[in-house]
Every structure is written in structure tokens, then in C-alpha cells.
Design a protein that fits this description.
This protein is an alpha/beta fold. The chain has 9 helices and 14 strands.
Amino acid sequence: MHALEGKNLTKTFDKIVAVDNASFEVPEGSIFGLIGRNGAGKTTTIRMMMNIYLPDSGEVILRGTKVGQDFKNQVGYLPEERGLYKKMKVNDIIYYFAELKGKTGRDVHKKADEYLKRFDLYDRRLSKIEDLSKGNQQKVQFIATILHDPEFIILDEPFSGLDPINTNLLREIIMEMKQRGKVIIFSTHLMDFAEKMCDHIVMIDHGKIIMKGALAQVKSKYAQRNISLTYDGDISFLQSDPMIEKISNYGNTTGIRLKDANSSQQLLRMLLDRNVTIKKFDANDISLQEIFIELAGLEDEGKNGRKEVRNV
């Protein structure tokens, strides 16, 4: 049995179809990534999971039973739009959100202090929210999200506004919660975060799920005939080589799609013969960003009457 399931979820706003017949499964004890570009339908999907929006059709199933209002008591939810009261003090707002979930007393205060120290906010515990930077406000809201020790943690774009040090700290805490058996669902348009953290992913575009599954299986499926290359030098000669199907430049990394998977060693020899300095040459490797660009591009083609990708 899955922890949570979405079954044929559809939600429209006026004439806009925000989510279109979406089905997915969230395994127990996993980190589940809902990924896609801005406006793809991620937040609407999360709000249907939370029973904030009722779907026009379809349903959300919690461990075999249709989700109800009581599910909110089992969830820590970090919305994309921050919901902190600007005039309240940091301590007060953290205690307030914990009390809304039925958690009060000395243990809650002790736990709050531990998180505030860990996020380097203890000295600001009596400051008003409006006096904090956006990044520090984000950290306060994350603490409020998890302080009541929820079974499910749902995070909508959780890394927004955080510097690299605090991003790593947030990621560390999320991984700790996974080790404790929590179900963690987060949405992001940043593919590198999803790739580093998620066990299972759903890729959504224009309201449709275009790919879903265990991350390792997804990468294995799309990595066939793919080379992930980091180099110094000139590889423009590959553009006209008959063994190359496609070359994609992603900045620091170049993706090369071969027509035949057995050509990888031939390609490597050719690069070395042309005095290209190889920093990384990973055969049958592909980034989640490359997969998304490929699938979302096919989805866009489908909007123009050509090939359209559904579930993969």
C-alpha cells in the first residue's frame, strides 16, 4: 500500500486546466519530488493533496482511504507563498503554529530552541518577522512546518531564498526526517535538487504528468546512448559526425546522444585524438534536467499537433 495516491486528478480555473487527469503514487518512507517548470501545475496538485482545493474529478487516497480534513493534522506544509505574521516575534510564531497542531509545553520550546540554534537564528528569537531577511523568514517557516513532528512533510519550493550553506542544512534535515520514516513530498523547478534528494519523481508539464517512477529507473531508461561530458577544447567537429544523434550544451556539462550505444569508446578515442581535455566522460549517464528538457520539448511539440508525451 502506498502512503498517498492521486487518482485521475483534474482541476480547472475558469477555462485554464491547471491539472489534467494526473495519477501518481507516493511510497512510504520516501522523498517524492513533484518537478516541472513554473506554472506547470505543481502547487495546484499539492493543494489538492492537502484538501485545500477540491478536485473537479479524481481523488486523493491516504493509505487506502479517501483523504479528509483530518489529514491536515498529520502534515507539515510549507507553502510557496510565505504565511508568516510580520509583526509577531520569531518564538511566538513558531509556538503558535505548533499549538495549532496540538503541540504545547516545555518540550516544544526546547525543540524550537534546538532548531533555532541549528539555523543560526537563536539570537533572533525575540525579533519581529518583518525585521528578518527573506532567507531567515524562510528558515523560521520551515521550523514551524516540522516542529510538531508530522508524519507527512509537504514542501512547495522549499529552497527559495536560501543561500548555499542554509540550503545544505535544510537538505540535511530533510534527509534526517526521511531516516526517521517520514514521507516527504516537495515540489521544485530546480532539477539538481530533485536529482540529489528524491527516491521517486513525477514530472508535470502543462498540467499533465509526462513521466513518473523511481529516480534510478528513470535515469537508467533515458541514459541509454547518452554521454555526459565535461571538457576543455573544441568539439565542434562532432556536429557533422555520423555516429552522433544530438549534442546539447548545458553550460558546465554537455550531453551527447549516440546513434549506437556501442560507439562510446570510439567517441572517447576521437576526442583524445583531437586533443580535447576530458574532465568527465560518463557513458549511459544523463541528468534529470536533460530528461526534463527532452520530455517537455516533446510535450510542447504535442501542443502544435505533433508527438505528445503522456506517462512514461
